Amino acid sequence: MARNIFGEQPDKVEIVLHGSFASTGRGHGTDRALVAGLLGWAPDDTRLPQSLKTAAELGMQVEFSSADLGEVHPNTALLRLEKGKNKIEILGSSIGGGKILITKINDIQVELSGSYATLIVAHRDRPGGVASVTSIVADHKVNISAMRVSRQSRGARMMMIIEMDQLPPEGIVPEILRCQSVEHALLLKPITALGGDKIGQNNQH
Question: What family does the entry list (predicted)?
Answer without folding.
Answer: Belongs to the iron-sulfur dependent L-serine dehydratase family.
